[in-house]
C-alpha cells in the first residue's frame, strides 16, 4: 500500500476543497490495492467517509453562498 493510514491519521486534514478531494482520490486508490490488509482498508474507508462528509459540507456551503449572491443580483 502506498500510504500508511493509521487511526491517528484518520482525522480529516484541514485544507481546501482541492486538497481534500485529492486526498480522497488517494484513499480510493489505496483501497483498490489488492495487497492492502482488512485493517488498512477499514481505516481508509473511515477516513474517506469523513472526507466525503467534509466535501459535501463545503459544496452545500458554496451552493448557499451562490444562492444568496444570485438573490442579491436580482434586487
Question: Roughly what percent helix?
Answer: 55-70%
Order of helices and strands: HH
Percent strand equals: under 5%
What about the largest sheet? none
Instruction: Name the average pLDDT.
Output: 85
- Poorly predicted runs are 1-10
Briefly note the structural class of the backbone.
mainly alpha
Q: Descriptors for this entry?
A:
69% helix
Concise account of the structure shown:
The chain has 75 residues and is an all-alpha fold. The protein has 2 helices and no strands.
Structure description:
This protein has 75 residues and is an all-alpha fold. The protein has one domain (15-74). The model is unreliable at 1-10 (pLDDT under 50). It has helices spanning 17-31, 38-74. It has 2 helices and no strands. The chain starts with 16 loop residues before the first helix and ends with a helix.
Helix-strand blueprint:
Elements lengths: L16 H15 L6 H37 L1
Amino acid at each position: 500500500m502506498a500510504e500508511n493510514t493509521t487511526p491517528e491519521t484518520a482525522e480529516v486534514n484541514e485544507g481546501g476543497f482541492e486538497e481534500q478531494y485529492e486526498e480522497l482520490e488517494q484513499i480510493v486508490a489505496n483501497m483498490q490495492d489488492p495487497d492492502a490488509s482488512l485493517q488498512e482498508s477499514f481505516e481508509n474507508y473511515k477516513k474517506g467517509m469523513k472526507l466525503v462528509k467534509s466535501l459535501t459540507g463545503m459544496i452545500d456551503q458554496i451552493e448557499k453562498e451562490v444562492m444568496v449572491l444570485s438573490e442579491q443580483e436580482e434586487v
